[in-house]
Amino acid sequence: MEKPKYHIFVCASFRAGGDPKGVCHKKGALEFLPYIENEILDRGLDAQVTSTGCLKGCDHGPVMVVYPQGYWYGNIESEDMIDQILDALEDGGSVKEFLIA
Length: 101
Prior knowledge:
Layout: E1 6-14, H1 23-26, H2 32-43, E2 47-53, E3 64-67, E4 71-73, H3 79-90
Parallel strand pairs: 1-2
Antiparallel strand pairs: 1-3, 3-4
């Protein structure tokens, strides 16, 4: 298996015991997963998307993290925001106004 150039993590708020209680889950973060996956494929982006347990960024949820760059994005509320993040990634940068860390 080849390592992807980018790895995108989307907080799904899962906690021990499998109980999704956090902000990201409640704000629909999981609904973004198919959209992100389709955009990755449509753009031919060498990336993988993964849902995660709680990333402890509840004050900024939904949270999305891009590695290896280490970009932490918060308050992801629309497909348009995701498009902007993926556009910036393709251009080798970030969307500064969405960064939380």
